[in-house]
Amino acid sequence: MYQINESAISWLPPGQIEPAAMQQIVNLASMPFIYRHVAIMPDCHVGMGATVGSCIPTDGAIIPAAVGVDIGCGMLAVRTPLARGDLPADLSSIREGIERRIPLSAGKYNRSVSSTAKTRVAALENKAGERLGFYKRLSGRADWRLQLGSLGSGNHFIEITLDESETVWAFLHSGSRGIGNKIAMQHIRTAQRVMKRESIKLPDRDLAYLNDGTEEFDEYIRDLRWAQDFAFLNREEMMDRVMTELSYTVYGEGGHEGELELERIQCHHKFTQKERHYGKDVWVSRKGAIQAKEGQMGLIPGSMGTASYVVRGLGRVDAFETAPHGAGRRFSRTQARKRFTMDDFDRDMRGIEVRRSKEFIDELPGAYKDIDTVMEQSRDLVEIVHTFRQIVNVKGD
Fold first, then answer.
1. Banded pLDDT at 397 (limits 50, 70, 90)
2. Crossing angle for the helix pair 115-128 and 215-251, nearest 10 degrees?
3. Distance CA 62, CA 67 (A)
4. Residue 82: how many CA atoms within 13 Å on its side-chain side?
5. Could you tell me whether strands 382-394 and 353-354 are parallel, antiparallel, or unpaired per DSSP bridges?
6. What's this model's pTM, rounded to 2 decimal places?
7. Are β-strands 8-10 and 353-354 bridged in parallel, bridged antiparallel, or unpaired?
């Protein structure tokens, strides 16, 4: 652990933090409502207002941009009783089956609410209460109900992967889709209006905050929690469809999903919740970080073609029981597209069933920090339980 200043500590050596990210850390740590200190993870990189890879404990206020615009983004993994030999040698049918069952890419959603999604949609409608009309208006023609059970693009993925014993796992990464983004942006703009109204000067306009006890704060928390639930159920819905595909692959029919599931692990890595630390109840925002209480199971993915990890939290007190959420970007998407080619893609993805597309160039391993280095720098935050090696990779353009 490294001390950046009295209000910021880091598990990434300060010399390895890019200057723009360091400035964001310093700006964030200067906010008057930071509780004790911010904790910076080894996968830290520049984000909107605050770095991705940050744990931000606050007392009396929350910065919406420091939660992130993909509210509730996170991971879900299911361990099966299958071994590699139980799957066909040619895995293309599994990849293509998943791609048929789950809408991929930005702006691509379901055509109707599926039978499996109806119960989840009903639960979200019930939780929305009087805010339901607001969510409908906010989502516009891209009905949020049709977004449930869709992947998105960028670094979101669905994988079939093997652990160190060759056990098959289903593994996916996604968040609250278009509706979550619109909710986040709505409240970021509200916070900026509040700062202007109150004549509050900030080191960065994306550090605009909402004070606990105000109407704006209460509305944000209500919408945030709904979007976090949406993200959780979105992953559940997609995983159900992946398990159905595995059922058809192994048994030639659906209906065996239950017997194919031995263990399920799910975690957010862009979220806010009330927690007790150092004897006080405070808000903890994790932007690109997972909760890692002692004994708590979590998931830390690498990038396309690299290892991912099932981890167990060590409950590190000064990290506010937090761990990194992944590899963290090394190059921007624009930089990656200039630097890497389809030859790099073919080399990095050799042996993995994946749709060959130039759209994935900015997701190659070289665009990210080395996940093994991140895990080494996290050794006092989590312990590794399983190491994944992907054999099928599904992404959206």
1. confident
2. 170
3. 8
4. 26
5. parallel
6. 0.96
7. unpaired
Strands annotated E in 146-262 = 157-162, 167-174, 210-211
- Catalytic sites, residue numbers: 325
Burial 84-97 (b: 16+ CB within 10 A, else e): eeebeeebeebbeb
Question: CA gyration radius for the chain?
Answer: 21
Closest CA to 213 of 66, 62, 64, 69: 62
Q: Give the model confidence (pLDDT) of 135-163 as tens digits.
A: 999 998 889 999 999 999 989 999 999 99
**What tens digit of pLDDT does each residue of 8-20 get?**
999 999 999 999 9
Are 35 and 277 contacting, i.e. CB atoms less than 8 angstroms apart?
yes
Q: CB under 8 Å to 317, separation ≥6 — which residues?
A: 277, 278
How would you label 359-393 residue by residue, b for 16+ Cβ within 10 Å and e otherwise? ebbbbbbebbbbbeebbebbeebbeeebbbbbbbb
Reported as a single tens digit per residue, the pLDDT across 102-139 is 999 888 999 999 888 999 999 999 999 999 999 999 99
